[in-house]
Amino acid sequence: MNPSFQLCVFAYNLENTIQQSLKSLIDSCGQYRPDIYVMVNGCRDHTYQQVNKLAQIYSSIIPVEIQLGDKSNAWNTFVHQYYDGYSIAVFADGDLTFEQNAVANIVDYFQLNQHYHAVSSFPCLKGRSAKSWRAALLKEHQFTGNLYLLAPEFLKNIIAQKVYLPTGLIGDDSMLGFLSATNLCSGIDTPIDNIGVCTNAIFNYEPLNPTSLKDIKLYLRRRVRYSKRHMQQSNIVPQLKRYGLKAMPEYAAQIDRLHIRWLSSNVIFDLLAAWSIRQERSRS
């Protein structure tokens, strides 16, 4: 008998690609038939309408429209409002496609390794960094935010302890990796014991084209986001290690120190990230 599981998909301004991604996800579920919650958050385009059209064809698709454009808030919404409390939960980004049986494989892997709190997927071999990314996943049991599974018992503890990701958090994958590896700040930090890696749950992504002006702009914006992630994580994680879950802020901008890496190639992006965080503070 197949286990019960739910699939949560994050979608933000993906009107041109979300149907392709969802069809790919459905195909990758193999023999499983999950309910698919598409968290359409803060979209300024017609993503919700595209998801709704597909929901008329696939009854398993459940569109959820959220006004705030924030992935961490969308994660909180699914976990605390739509998760049924007992199923295996698989999470996926809506801007990807997936290899045959990718979702089925990650569920099957967990069925054989139920001691893990989380299971990471595996990137396809595209782009310059794919090979090193794969090696790091296997060596360090890192957490992949692109496609991952969270165990029912782990999610039950998250709900029971009222764990919410901070709104505005950049790098929900890094935070969930930390929470998984430490079993919700229990005093241990053992990713190899707590995070599995399913090498045949493969997701596809399009690497950036260095000759494309659009991709260059995307790369620069991404570098600023990476700097914000660095500042947020370097503030929040030490507090969690010291004080436990009670130190989790409601908003990611509520951080004390904006650490600029002056003697590095990150300095310009760090400065832009610091300015952005200060703007967020002034609005909150």
TrEMBL record:
Which key words are in the record?
Transferase
Q: Does the keyword Translocase apply?
A: no
Q: Does the keyword Lipoprotein apply?
A: no
Q: Which SUPFAM superfamilies match?
A: Nucleotide-diphospho-sugar transferases
Superkingdom to which the source organism belongs: Bacteria
What the entry lists under InterPro entries is as follows: Glyco_trans_2-like, Nucleotide-diphossugar_trans
Alphabetized GO MF terms = transferase activity
Taking every annotated instance into account, which residue ranges of this chain make up the domain Glycosyltransferase 2-like?
A: 8-136
Recorded hits in CDD domains, A to Z, give: Glyco_tranf_GTA_type (cd00761)
Protein's name according to its UniProt entry: Glycosyltransferase
